[in-house]
Amino acid sequence: MADAESPPSAPRYVPIAEHGLIGDLRTVALVGSEGTIDWYCCPSFDSPSVFAAVLDAERGGRFELGAVQAVRTKQFYFPDTNVLITRFFSEDGVGEVQDFMPVTDSTEAAAEIDRHRLIRRVLCVRGTLPFRARVAPRFNYGADPHTLRAEGCMVFFESESLSLALTSTVPLEIDGADVRADFKLAEGESAVFALDQVGGDVTPRRCPHLEAEEQFAGTVAYWRRWLAQSRYRGRWRERVHRSALTLKLLTYAPTGAIVAAPTTSLPERLGGERNWDYRYVWVRDAAFAVYALLRLGFAGEAEAFMRFLTRHISPGDSRAEGPLQVMYGIDGRTHLPERELGHLHGHEGSAPVRVGNAAAEQLQLDIYGALIDSIYLYDKWAQPISSAQWDDVCRLVDWICDNWDQPDEGVWETRGGRKDFLYSRLMCWVGIERAVRLAHRRGLPADLPRWRQSRDAIYRRIMDRCWSPTRQAFVQYEGGEVLDAAVLMMPLAKFIAPTDPKWLSTLDALTEDLVSDSLVYRYDPHSSPDGLRGDEGTFSMCSFWYVEALTRAGRMDEARLAFEKMLTYANHLGLYAEEIGLTGEQQGNFPQAFTHLALISAAYNLDRALG
């Protein structure tokens, strides 16, 4: 007999990797493998959360929905879409929950777009099954109270800043601050739950079975039409297309911005402090995004992203940190103050939970090369840039010529002081070199003698001061002996031949020091302190860079094996967080755009090399 006085068990955290992603090109929701929505911000990626159980299982809020006595579950995507299916297997039958946020090609009224409808269709596939739902929103990262109001078959959750309407085809019961539903479905029967943002021009509206079916069909058709644009027909089509679909979900349609990840503060190490807000647009991602999207044939997305860059990321007033910021808001805003949410425990107790990102104010010289490289690629593969865009490029290149030799915080955004990082020098070289190429190809006016002089000076500086005779390798910063996976970009950026003896020696040194069963660490924080406590996992983006470096060096067997191994570390849906831990678990914000961009690039180039 159970002890009636025993305390309730601690709330359970769903592991980071045990989630799928749905969205409407303005925000997303993370759906756990047992049917819980553990993360949802409304109305946009960087809005305060409504459900945040992934950051605090007790205070964060969640939307539970599933079969009551399920023995096991399986999760998969409806083929070639971002419609997520969670199946429940029990002794009495099989049921499933279909989760999606409606997206269509039609020019819907602004009010319908602003509804941000989240639909959860429950079906009994075989037998007869009891189901249970519990909707427990916790507004503004769990800080704001809310009231409940029932009107017929709808329940309204109303907080100071946001109102949501829940409609269902089964009876709803108010339970304190939450709403519950217990119901039973026989084979072939279904139920629908829909959660809408309401207020202003968005009026409450039911979601009957027929409407849910129509929106399901419309959403499936939208994703399949979009994916049909892909030109990729290689060996890893399913993985590459899942990465492309994920990147599309991370796109903010009103501006064309692509967020680094849709989450904040998922830890790079459980119990550690390496927890950051990634719901912003990093300039660094620009070249990788444009390259991957254009390679696959998604010219519209590349063009929209370039419009965002042109509109919001042009050289501003001279700042101590340079004319560009490291990152911008999805609407182009520059003010991204970082603060800690002390009332949230963090995922599995990994505090602090942060909102905003102080790295926006850092000096990171590599972003200038990344931005100019993206403009170069777009001009080469999509359409010629305008005269105004070229004027911006010239101003940026002139700034690089004046400032490339400063120490900075570097690509990894360290908080341990500035250094003369090789990667920062490398990307400054890329920025000038791509601008020189563009000027030649288009016959555009430029101060070419000065640009070439600076470009060549950077090249000599890297070769002279960033090569370690002791390590027989290129190292993290000038005069150091520490290795850094960022140098994998040297042959990828065409700074050095992929078969140059110095590069091959560096590749061997990186393999010896930073590679573990195809997984690549960024650097060793004990050898190169970064101002933060604790270790971290291997960095998935670097693991795909490593595959590409091996490919370009002609080491095809190693490259293919490393790539195939890396694919086994994806979650059950083919999604990657930022890092992979010691026992193979996903760590960090999820899913991460940079990792999926790097997967696409590695797959494309490995395919081409294999023939």
General description of the model:
- The protein is α+β, with helices and mostly antiparallel strands.
- 33% of the residues lie in helices and 21% in strands.
- The chain contains 15 helices and 28 strands.
- Strands 5, 6, 7, 8, 9, 10, 11, 12, 13, 14 and 15 form an eleven-stranded antiparallel beta sheet that branches. The protein has a four-stranded antiparallel beta sheet with strand order 1-2-3-4. It has a three-stranded antiparallel beta sheet with strand order 26-27-28.
- A hairpin with a 4-residue loop joins strand 2 and strand 3.
- Helix 13 packs parallel to helix 15 and helix 14 (556-567) packs antiparallel against helix 15.
- It is globular, with a radius of gyration of 25 Å.
- The chain starts with 18 loop residues before the first strand and ends with a helix.
Summarize the structure.
With 611 residues, this protein is an alpha+beta fold. It is built from 15 helices and 28 strands. The strands form eight sheets. Strands 5, 6, 7, 8, 9, 10, 11, 12, 13, 14 and 15 form an eleven-stranded antiparallel β-sheet that branches. Strands 1-2-3-4 form a four-stranded antiparallel β-sheet. A three-stranded antiparallel β-sheet has the order 26-27-28.
CA radius of gyration is: 25 Å
The first-to-last residue Cα distance is: 66 Å
Structural category is: alpha+beta
Number of strands: 28
- What coarse outline follows from CA principal-axis ratios? globular
State the helix count.
Answer: 15
pLDDT averaged over residues: 93
**Low-pLDDT sequence parts:** 1-8
Percent of residues in β-strands:
15-25%
Largest sheet: 11 strands, antiparallel
Helix amount: 25-40%
